[in-house]
Amino acid sequence: MTDIFGTERMRTTVLAAWTASPARFREDANAEEDFALGGYRDRLIVELAQNAADAALRAGVPGRLRLTLRDGVLSAANTGAPLDATGVEGLSTLRVSGKRDEIGSVGRFGVGFAAVVSVCDEPLIASRATGAVRWSRAETAALVAAEPTLSRELAGRDGHVPLLRLPFEAEPVDVPEGYDTVVRLPLRDKTVEQAVRQMLAETGPALPLAMPALAAIEIEADGESRTITADGWQVVEASGDFSAEQVAELFADRPTEERARPYWLVRWAVPDGDGRLPKDVAPVVHAPTPSDEPLDLPALLIATFPLATDRRHVASGPLADYLVERAAETYIELLKTLPKTPRLLDLVPGLMGKGELDAAIRRAVLRRLPDTPLLPAISPPADAEPAERSGDLFVLSGREASVVEGPAGFLDRIAFAVPGLLPAGWAGRHPALTTLGVRRVELSDVVDMLSGDAVDDKTPAWWHSVYDVVPADDREALGALPVPLADGRLVRGPRGTLLLGDSSLDASLLAPLGLRVVHPEAAHPLLLRLGAAEATPGSVLDDPLTHATVSESLDSADPEPVAQAVLALVEAAGLSAGEAPWLSALALRGADGELYPAGELLLGEGSLAKLIDQDVPFGVAAPDLVERYGTHVLSAAGVLDGFAVVNDSDVPLDPDECDHELDTEDEWLEAVLDVVPETLVPPVAREFTAIRDLEYVADWPSALALLSRPPLRAALQPLRALADGQIVEAPSYTAWWLSRHPVLDGRRPTSLRLPHGDPLLYGLYGDAPEGLDTGALAMIGVRTTLADLLASHGGPDELLDLLADPSLEVDRAQLRSLWIALAAVEPSRVAPPTAVRAVLNGRIIVADAEDGRPLGGNGPAEADVEGLVAAGPPVVVEAPDLLALVASRPLVLAPFDLAEALSELLDVPVAGEEFGGEVTSTGEERQVPAQVRSLLPSAPATYVDHAELTVDGVPVPWRFYEGAVHATGVEGLARGLAWATGQWGDRLAVAALLRDPDAVPLLLAEADLDS
After folding, report:
1. pLDDT of res. 186
2. How many other CB atoms are found less than 10 A from the CB of residue 630?
3. Which residues pair with 517 in a beta bridge?
């Protein structure tokens, strides 16, 4: 075996150096271990590829590398220059590269082969042309151990030696056919084998892209083969030499080995297709082999960045800064070479980088991007001629470009108005457009641009083509979309315009109404979706311009065409009277030739003409109008035939919303709002029906006959309103108005009761006329029953006011019944009266509520109250034994159990609040006769008999005081015992019993006969 490469000389030299200086041995061992376990721990495949690329470069042949993992051995066969003695020396000498003068070589530091140490203890390299060399950890350790000065060092390192410092000659090895050199690495164990298998799986096109001399890499592992090339990538690179001045400036902090290679290279590559980096390309900076510097861009960067001593990070400094700028320039050139498609946007970097170097590259790129012509446009820029063209497209910088969201057809239509407009497909919301400085033009802004001189020459047909393609989803943005009209105007916004479509309406007939009719060639369904209306008779009548024309027609210089157009529309729409109350302002000719609002004209033969006051300034419709259009059309236009009916729906009961120009409508609304509960939002009347012009009626009997029959009767029905989710009822406008006016024989309905109605209301209300519909009378306010009166809004106050009127007569039984009914009313519904109907000295009078002073008698027959004097204000009597104490006061008399309720309702005290009721005389306690218990089983056993009983100094016949009955005489005792036992109704029977005890059987028999 011949030592071709002089390995023995190398070993002898190294061993001598180690023996002379054991520290040198430690240094070499530590350095190799640092490289193998640090910077090159996972770079085995990269370093093998790097050596193969450099060999091909030296030989000037296409580089090929075949990596084979079989039976625990990794083999790397490559083409190119064979191994020579210089190469062996370089592989066995740390930090000294044999490639320093080779332009284009990848290896720069002379330590890459150290990566094999991490996986192998017996590496071998053999070239077909020159021979083989090997290294051995075991043999190296034996040689070191044989040197006494080194054995101690070896023991201190647990037998670890620098494997690659001592090469050994090797027997010739078969090199695979078609290759020039092979590297054989017997892997240390299964763990290492699995790690190498993973490295092979992760190997991708970054290697041939970083090493152009390497045309292909073949990988064979576990029976599967694949080939890696640089095909399918778009590559742009730049390179150059450093001048002496640049070397002095940029390499001042770099090692001598780097200063000896004064050139630079930057290469960017992006994959074809969707532009995403494949999974087997690590997103890191390659310098030129992979580093640990992250690069979060969908592109591969290969550049001769200076590396720190760990060989995994870029060393900061002026050289790195210089290359960052060159990388940014080259990246811009890469973007300029790519097709002008939206894929470019994915290559625009964002602001945030994943590392310091990534961020620096991004900043340098972003400084250049906005002024770089990259983007295609279908229209020229605003202020200058474009410098570049690509086919039919302009190529602009981001600052010159605009983007609008929309389909291609739409963008083609608007390109003339939007400078620098990007074609369809460029996502307007893509963040890269903002980075590039592209102006985002919203649809509403485009609509604003379609105005003035820019569209003066655009025909209605052109506008129709725009409507075909404009994005219709954003209706708000299209609110001001221009619309050409039939009269030649171009108006802003479809809302308020009319499309004739297939309508039979005559455009010339509509001309006097000043309507915005869309030009027939521009008519498009989109306009309907954006607020235009189809020109039906109804929609034309609803148009605000029609309303305005009608309201101003009386002042028009030529109202006749307006009247003809409106009456024709009313006839075509089939309107009925009251459906469009605003038409009452339409100027029409009267029989006297004068102009009147339609609502102030009567049909000569109409029913209303016979009812109203002849002095009211109404005109009569011109006969020719009646003949031409008929009474139905004229009535629908507001001319009065019978009563005019106002119909409306969903009417907010609010002064600002509810206005139908009815007589005293505001007062009616106040009355309604008093009835319905208070709400945060106004109540809403689902249906609103009212009769207008009631204030002009003179013949009320005939008018009421009409109003009480269908269909006008519906206007009397209560109004139903929705308030806070509940339906409440209130008087309708018509019923309310009639209730407040003297329409029944000159009297207001609310002052009358139904004939033969509730007797309890007799004397308080007059009788309504006979022969009228009682249901209709009730709806307009004629009183029906006491219960209905008290249940109505304001009914209790009305009754109390009537009772305080001395001119009205009520009998004592009626008064008692009225007090009983009033006692059930909630006091909060009533304002305390200033005068009350009461009993004074046995007479029914009206007394002042404050001082009891008699204000009047009970009706005309008993009007005289002269000589009547009240000892104090009125009281409500709650107990019969107090009657004698308050006999000189006006008394409110009702069942005693209602006294407290009446006192609160009327704000009048009960008798017990005015008098203490203390017994002031003395008496003798006596036994209650036993016979009394036959009528009063719960009667007390005793009572106090007084010769003369006084209470508060006033003589009285009896008093039930502090649980004891006090009495004088039989009548007093009978009343006291009946009251004490709660059997007040039996007081007369008890008195009879006390007078004649033998009458008990007869009294009991009579009691048995009570119903």
Report:
1. 96
2. 13
3. 498
pLDDT in tens, 631-644: 899 888 988 887 87
Q: What are phi and psi of 256, to 5 degrees?
A: -60, -40
Q: What letter does residue 914 receive in the DSSP assignment?
A: H
Whether the Cβ atoms of residue 634 and residue 625 lie closer than 8 Å to each other: yes
Both structure tokens of 593: 């030739």
What is the b/e burial string over 790-827, where b = at least 16 CB atoms within 10 angstroms of the residue's CB? bebebbbebbbebbbebebbbeeebbbbbbebbbebee
Phi, psi angles (nearest 5°) of residue 71: 55, 40
pLDDT tens-digit profile of 196-210? 999 999 999 999 999
Distances (CA, A) of 160 to 10, 389, 541, 927: 20, 67, 104, 134
Q: What is the CA radius of gyration of the chain?
A: 58
Sign of the four-CA dihedral 320, 322, 328, 334: negative
Separation between Cα atoms, residue 736 and residue 670, nearest integer Å: 11
Tell me, rounded to whole angstroms, the distance of Cα 914 from its chain centroid.
66
Pairing of strands 835-840, 726-730: unpaired
Alpha-carbon torsion (895, 897, 901, 906), positive or negative? positive
CA–CA separation, 520 and 501 (whole Å): 8
- The DSSP letter of residue 109 is S
Q: Quote the CA–CA distance of 349 and 633 in Å, as a whole number.
A: 73
- Which ranges of 98-171 does DSSP label H, i.e. alpha helix? 137-145, 148-156
d(CA 303, CA 320): 10
Residue 943 is inside which H or E element, if any? strand 942-945
d(CA 504, CA 920): 103
Distance CA 696, CA 616 (A): 7
Identify the pLDDT of residue 385. Answer: 64
Residue labelled with tokens 């008290």: 790
Q: Contact, 769 vs 707, CB < 8 A?
A: no
Q: Please give the structure tokens belonging to residue 560.
A: 């006749």
Report the candidate in 437, 638, 640, 607 with the shortest Cα–Cα distance to residue 541. Answer: 638
Please count the other Cβ atoms lying within 10 Å of the Cβ belonging to residue 851.
11
- Which 3-state string (H, E, C) describes 253-283? CCCHHHHCCCEEEEEEEEECCCCCCCCCCCC
> pLDDT (tens digit, 9 = 90+) per residue, 826-862?
999 999 999 999 999 989 999 999 999 999 999 888 8
Question: Phi and psi (nearest 5°) for 747?
Answer: -120, 150
**Residue 109: per-residue pLDDT:** 35
Closest CA to 344 of 401, 411, 266: 401
pTM exceeds cut of 0.70:
no
Task: Name the residue among 414, 425, 378, 373 with its Cα closest to residue 395.
Answer: 373
133-165 b/e (C-beta count within 10 Å ≥ 16 → b) = bbbbbebbbebbeebeebeebbeebeeebbbbb
Residue 312: per-residue pLDDT: 83
Lowest mean pLDDT among 81-90, 187-196, 237-246, 636-645: 636-645
The pLDDT of residue 680 is above 90:
no
pLDDT at 942 over 50: yes
Question: What DSSP character marks residue 670?
Answer: H
Q: Which among 923, 941, 919, 924 has a CA at the least distance from the CA of 932?
A: 941
pLDDT tens digits along 19-60 = 999 889 888 888 887 766 655 667 889 999 999 999 999 999
Measured N-to-C along each axis, helices 899-906 and 812-822 cross at an angle, to the nearest 10 degrees, of 80
| Cα 265 from Cα 302, distance rounded (Å) | 8
CA triplet 570, 579, 530: central angle to 5 degrees?
Answer: 75
Q: How far apart are CA 752 and CA 769, in angstroms?
A: 9
969-980 vs 987-995: helix axis angle to the nearest 10?
A: 140
